[in-house]
Amino acid sequence: MEMTAITRQEKMIVFLSGEIDHHSAKDIRDGIDKIMIESKPKCMIINLAGIGFMDSSGLGLILGRYRRATELGIQLYISGADKNVLRILKMAGVDKIIKTVVTE
Amino acid sequence: MKKDNRIKINELKCVLPAKSINESFSRMLISAFITNLDPTIEEISDIKTAVSEAVTNCIVHAYANYPEKDKKIYINAQTYSDKLVVIKIKDKGVGIEDIHKAMQPMYSGSGSEERSGMGFSIMESFTDGLSVRSKVGKGTTITMKKYIGKDVTDE
Lengths: 104, 155
What we know:
The complex is a heterodimer. Chain A contains four helices and five strands; from the N terminus they run ββαβαβααβ. Chain A is an alpha/beta fold. The two termini of chain A are 22 Å apart. Chain B is built from five helices and five strands. In chain B, a hairpin with a 3-residue loop joins β2 and β3 (84-91). The chains are: A alpha/beta, B alpha+beta. Chain A binds chain B through residues 19, 21-23, 25, 29, 53-57, 59-61, 63-64, 83-84, 88, 91-92, and chain B through 20-21, 23-24, 27, 42, 45, 48-49, 52-53, 56, 59-60, 105-106, 113-119, 121-122, 125.
């Protein structure tokens, strides 16, 4: 699992790559939370284009980050989800709660 | 094809320690096992996701408070001549008191971790059949069935 964060104007884009399961979720959670607390961006986009596999642990992770972001006054978006990832996000209605953006 | 003329092609039995590192190993194992049925990328992805959910349940729920040496996951997979895959994932953990409740979407038995409660819903919708047998204090067996190559007529 790799994580890269870049700042573009007032947006923080976090690129995730690898697989999201229960095993990897903790490190990703800690990584994103650290960025949110330290950088306090106005807007954060979690880019999932590099995610080759995601199960329900990814849902818990993303919904958890959404709650955390809301507490910190950060607007959270997701982008780059492929067909399989999107299917799982839609099952839990995450696409209705968190906006997905096409262009960053 | 009727069950009577179904011929077993291959079988896999595997016992793994219930460690989170084996979540990815078990789904890779199953996806390698079904390769000779010539599944589509989508079918592989469905099976990997369903297996990952079942194995994660063993680790997060079944064996949450068990000593390390007793935490074992028993995987059995079979492929059949009519392109059926049957996967059983068994634990000897805490068991599920109310299966109906546990299977409801968004219900999570784990309060401490960020769990979505979508595990069973995913197993159900990503396979062609899911059964859950469980006895409190004895353990849980998940059986999942999936036909490879059936999506062609569905879509």
